[in-house]
Design goal:
By secondary structure, the protein is of the alpha/beta class. The protein has a domain at about 325-375. About 45% of the residues lie in helices and about 20% in strands. The chain has helices at about 15-25, 40-55, 70-80, 105-110, 120-135, 150-155, 175-185, 200-210, 235-240, 255-270, 305-320, 335-345, 355-380, and strands spanning about 5-10, 30-35, 60-65, 85-90, 140-145, 165, 190-195, 215-220, 225, 275-280, 285-290, 295-300, 320-325, 330-335, 350. Helix 2 (about 40-55) links the parallel strand 2 (about 30-35) and strand 3 (about 60-65). The model has no long low-confidence stretch (mean pLDDT about 95). It binds NADP nicotinamide-adenine-dinucleotide phosphate. NADP nicotinamide-adenine-dinucleotide phosphate binds near residues 37 and 68.
Amino acid sequence: MNDIRRIMVLGAGDLGRRVFHELAQGDRGRHVRLLGRDPETTLRAANSAGFCALQRGHGAQVSHALTDLTDTDRTAQEIAAFRPDVLFLAVSYQSWWQISTLPEDAFKRLYAANFGPWLPMHLVPVLHAMRAVRAAGSDATVVNAAFPDAVHPVLAAAGLAPHIGIGNVANNVPALRTAAARQLGLDVADIDVRLVAHHYVSHRLSRHGDSGPARMGLSVHYAGEDVTAKADVPELLRWLPADYRRTGGLAGQTMTAASALSVLEPLVDGRDAHVHAPGPDGRVGGYPVAIESGRFRLLLPDGMTEDEAVAINLSGQRADGITEIRPDGTVVFEPAAMGVLTDALGYACERMPLGEAEDRAREIAERYAHFRDRSCERAEALR
Ligand SMILES: NC(=O)c1ccc[n+]([C@@H]2O[C@H](COP(=O)([O-])OP(=O)(O)OC[C@H]3O[C@@H](n4cnc5c(N)ncnc54)[C@H](OP(=O)(O)O)[C@@H]3O)[C@@H](O)[C@H]2O)c1
């Protein structure tokens, strides 16, 4: 391992800035670079992170640079110039929270589509980033935040999947451990869980306390021993939106940032760790994962095969609005979920080969902007 560990965060939005800030609060052995698009936002975020680190007595090196992902050569040059050991992607054309800024009736209309139909908005920027990673000849471990549950299996078809994702399946794990410890009367420090769940289930658990039409896998471990049989799992899940509810919306992305750091910090520090992550090595959905010497091994509930875990995640994928991701990367969307976007935006897509994703993202962006403007005008007129 080099003396200095180099970490690049690509994307100076809400999540990228949070994670960059936390990574900067490290020791002298780290150099953290923020690669953003907007000069003012990126400069301020880099300065703030560096100044906070100084104020707290930390010594990580902090720097920043600029690119636009649509300029693959420039992004590749920035990656090649910095030579990151770990590259964190936090880019999106339309983050999940954007629709929550709409007037309530418009938000509710779109929310009914679930996440799958919006896939191009997360897939395309990651595709651009991965092309730049390859063009740079980078051997960085690439960690991605943008809908890894579906983005990774699509990009795997083109040999462009990031190594691992963050968040989603991971975001409920601390609450589940806390709930299990309370139920079993044990110390949370001795409790582990192994959760197999797609983005759809992760999202639903914290709001409804069940996995709805999708399946999930969960085991509870005390000091390494499987104690699931002693737990009342449905009750544990019901506690998530009740006693163990979390801050929602953008402010709630502190939990996502912590999930990201749970994967990034062991990779940066060269430590082994047990984590939860979506999309490891191009797989669909989310899994418990052992990080071992920078590689990833599934750490499934005892007795669960990988095929079973994948089947569980495919049930979540369908509930999220994606019928199928074919071996060539073509995505087939669920008609009911897509119908929600067709009704609201006039956007329809039955099947999307990877080569059409860019045009689809552009079309969604245009139609969404129109929908947003009309919804805001209507809400304004009703005031
Ligand atoms: N896995 C999880 O649990 C989880 C949780 C939360 C969020 N996420 C996902 O993480 C991603 C980031 O979320 P966020 O909340 O941070 O979103 P955000 O605040 O909208 O940030 C997205 C960033 O992408 C940048 N970007 C877009 N197009 C670009 C381009 N052509 N070149 C360079 N940069 C570009 C934007 O740049 P500008 O600032 O210049 O527009 C923005 O800074 C989203 O996909 C979101 O859904 C995942």
